[in-house]
Amino acid sequence: MKDFGQKSQSLLRTGRQLFESRLLEEALAEFRRALQSDPSSASAHVSIAMIHAIRGDFAEAAAKCQRALEIEAELAEGYVLLAAIHLAQQDYDSAECHARDALTHKPDLPSAEILMGLVRRGQGDPKCARSFFEAALRHEPDRPFVWHMLAQTLADLGEIQSALMACENSIAQNSTLPAPYLLLGQLHEKAGDYTKAQEAFQRAAELNPIVLLTGAARAQASLKAGQPDRAAHLLKELHEQFPKSPLPLLLLGDAQFDRAEHQQALLYYEQAAKLNPSLAVAYHKMGLTKLAMGRSAEAVLEFKEALRRNPAMLSAEFEANKLGSPNQVSLEERQADRSQKNFELSGEGEPTSALPLAQKKG
Q1: What confidence tens digit (pLDDT) does each residue in 141-186 have?
Q2: Counting Cβ atoms within 10 Å, is residue 2 exposed (0-12), middle (13-18) or buried (19+)?
């Protein structure tokens, strides 16, 4: 590169170290100081563009890249970043054009080959995408992201065993990411090995509880849409994948309650409470269910159990006090009250106490 000035180079090195530590604001300040020190530094322009791109300011990022290429027309990294900016906006034609420019100036550049693979996959050409991902891995075999993308592409092509091998290579390079385990579980399912699939899904949930919560949210959306049968189907699959989490059981109980299958709902809530005896929301739901079944005295006991586990659970206290009042409410009012308290993943009060459950490791 044609960057000049030892001070500018030193500032760029410091900025890159800060960037690798995810200190973006501090890195940006160093890159700007490098540019002030040497306004002809194409690398400084590209580095600043990279920060803008991460922030989603694609117009400013593209402008900085163009300025860098005006200074140094053969700067492959500038073309790579431009390609990535256009790819992020699903402008596949422009992304491909800039990625090819990068390869013209720097043949066999892995980052450009990866971008070409992503472009081809986005365009629905998995066979061509595969060739680019494999080319990138020949030059840099320790890239877990590329192994993951190759695994997905091989799965698109129906080559499940090859996809499994690529996925396992991705995990071998970095075993702390949930996405490869999710893909591994899906691939094992397709291969008919449901035991390994379940193990992979469980590991994904341990690494990131959102994996479990996302599946629960899909089921809950079906409940809200008035599709309890669909929700029950999704939740049974989720329970099979995460047998040690009470969350699918709680939502299965909700699905059964909405179908007026109160006895079955009660069984699911009881199972959730057995998995986590400190789970106040499970006892609260058991109380609401017994109330709907006309078992008021037992419902009061369940509400008290919920309060014992979580004294701040105002809804359980409200129910217990209401049952103790001489002014009894109708079954319809109780069911309406129950529906308002349906388990919300993003709600307030007692549902939040269930969120950490997804993080439990057996």
Answers
A1: 999 999 999 999 999 999 999 999 999 999 999 999 888 998 998 8
A2: exposed
Read off the tokens for 145: 């992201």
Length of the chain: 362
CA-to-CA distance for 228 and 220, rounded, in angstroms? 9
Quote the CA–CA distance of 158 and 147 in Å, as a whole number.
16
Q: How many CB atoms are closer than 10 A to CB 122?
A: 14
Cα 209 from Cα 214, distance rounded (Å) = 9
pTM: 0.60
Long-range (24+ apart) CB contacts under 8 A made by 214-220 are 215/241, 215/248, 216/247, 216/248, 216/251, 216/345, 217/345, 219/248, 219/251, 219/255, 220/251, 220/343, 220/344, 220/345
Tokens of 268: 């699911």
Rounded mean pLDDT, 309-337: 55
The pair phi, psi for residue 328, each rounded to 5°, is -80, 145
107 three-state secondary structure: coil
Helix axes 247-258, 210-224, angle to 10 degrees: 0
Number of helices (H), then strands (E), belonging to the chain: the values are: 20, 0
Cα-Cα-Cα-Cα dihedral sign, residues 182, 186, 192, 198: positive
d(CA 26, CA 202): 38
CB 344 within 8 A of CB 351: yes
Helix (H) or strand (E) holding 210: helix 210-224
- On the 0-12 / 13-18 / 19+ scale of CB atoms within 10 A, 204 is buried
Q: Which residue has the tokens 């629960």?
A: 216
Pair 32, 48: CB distance under 8 Å: yes
Q: Tokens 């190759």 identify what position?
A: 150
Ramachandran angles phi, psi of 178, nearest 5°: -75, -30
Interhelix angle 76-88/110-122, rounded to 10 degrees, is: 20
For residues 303 and 319, the answer to whether their CB atoms sit within 8 Å is: yes
Contact 278, 309 (CB under 8 A): yes
User: Is residue 276 a contact partner of residue 360, using CB atoms and an 8 Å limit?
Assistant: yes
CB atoms within 10 A of CB 330: 8
Q: For 68-159, where are the E strands, in sequence order?
A: none
